[in-house]
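yo

u said u wanted the structure for the complex thing, so here. seqs first:
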Amino acid sequence: MADSFASPSDPTQAVNAPGSTAVIAPGHTFGSVTDKISSIVLTRKTTRGWWLGFGVAFMLTLLLLVSLTYLVLKGIGIWGNNIPVGWAFDITNFVWWIGIGHAGTLISAILLLLRQQWRTSINRFAEAMTLFAVSCAGIFPLFHTGRPWVAYWLFPYPNTMGLWPQFRSPLIWDVFAVSTYATVSLLFWFIGLIPDLATLRDRSQSRVGRVIYGMLAMGWRGSARHWHRYETAYLLLAGLATPLVVSVHTVVSFDFAIGIVPGWHTTIFPPYFVAGAIYSGFAMVLTLAIPIRAIYGLEDFITMRHLQNMAKVMLVTGLIVAYGYTIEAFISWYGADKYDGFMIWNRLVGPYAPVYWSLIFCNIVLPQLLWLKRVRTSVSALFLISLVVNVGMWLERFVIIVTSLHRDFLPSSWGMFKPTFWDWSTFVGTIGLFLALLFLFVRFLPMISIFEMRTILPGAKVSEDAQVS
Amino acid sequence: MAAKSPAIYGLMAEFEDPNALVAAAHRAHHEGYRRMDAYSPFPIEELHEALGVHHTKLPLIVLIGGLIGCLGGYSLEYWAATIAYPLNVGGRPLHSWPAFIPVTFECTILAAALAAVFGMLALNGLPTPYHPVFNVPRFALASRNRFFLCIEARDGKFDVEETRRFLETLNPREVTTVAD
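structre next:
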């Protein structure tokens, strides 16, 4: 163990020792926390690595724009989905991205309500991740409509055609769930940013910085009356976002479960989708947090305790997902419905069986390594497992959607789905968009909530004496 | 009274830690000052109580917002599905209420969240393009690591000399006059 050689006086080393439970390295003050986080935005020179990373991500974003432009010109026939597989990469990607977003809300809202102090240093960029993931998710159903320029038809509004949306359809529920989720996530994130924007306004050396951060901070001055209402609003928003995040993936699962297609029509879907969403979301937070803390030297704030806790959440939600897969297969056999039985048999040994078995390996077999403390305390092992789980959760959605559709009731209407170049380019393009937005975020906004970091310092506690004097 | 002094907003005392600020706010409230505010770089639970601020109307606003969203969402669905555009889907009743729950729920959350955010901003009077406290150069540290108590000139008990003397007794780092 390399850590045993570190001198005990080095706080960063101490806090990263495998057994450490600290959420912040010792020795920090209100000033040092503020300076360290805000300097990443205000004074650090933009590194060559940032330009390289942003450059690659931006090129992929351009690939997305090319793909979408070509899609609008030619129609969705450029994708590989066709009857009987009417939903394929587009909906797989949609569900994958939405699921990734869920960890952000879980960390910022549910862990806040549960008073889990360790959430403090990861909530800000987890929320940003949510926003960017939901933006990527929205692209797919929007363009899959085929005519995205009339996408506003999805919303109820008085129109000359006298038409109203069909409120009995889960697809309309999805429109409401996802747009509410995007709006509430944006508000939650922005409200959390206001005090930190004021810090940036007060500390910025450049006039442009002062004006832009100043306008965004809206004149925040840290008044006790304001903080009181602010805390109330933040807590209420957390309370609202908690049932919301559960409802969003439940409604996404209704897109499938309400239909009668074998492999979709099952009551286990809502809980197992929600668990899967959190599973993939935490995997993505780890995938992002591990390189970010290394590059920006944030090991003081994102400690081994954070990484270990996230690994534990992954282990638990991964087991819930494993239970979901088991029950799905069991009910298909126990239910004795021959179409359902065939569906699961087709998944296990049919043409897409390699995909199914890879998903089982990625989501169930490999993550069991997280039971070992040696693995949970190894940063590189956690990074690799988180990448594998990201892949596994994508494969899961692909299996649910494509294997259920490609062989349903009538053998005469069976078919196969093969992704085209444009399927891949659109998917890779959204990854580019996601990363490009994240690069911009870490460059221009504080990626760790500064004011919340101040509250977890020992000096922030008000003693009894001060209150009675 | 030779030269007319410029209009002042109040007197501001600077403290180095939250304990001193909370204690100072208690003392000032005890002394009878009411028109004052405390400024800190992070929320301090005890502080608004020390200032004598106890309640906020925000939860009520959020509740009303949520109820409007809930009733509005359900009424919209009812009206669209049974009156404006009745559609027979497999003989199901037009008012098929279980199918209307998800959208009602989402509308409730959306309206309540909007009420929480905009209600908080409105009650706090944000955005505020100009505020006198920013005239004190050291106030920029209120968003970093310093704690301020400002007794405003509009307080009935305010007197430039006497209030300054009172603030000096609280062991502040310094007391400054805030220009209006």
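Chain B touches chain A through 73 residues (CB under 8 Å). The CA atoms of residues 11 and 177 of chain B lie 5 Å apart.
cya
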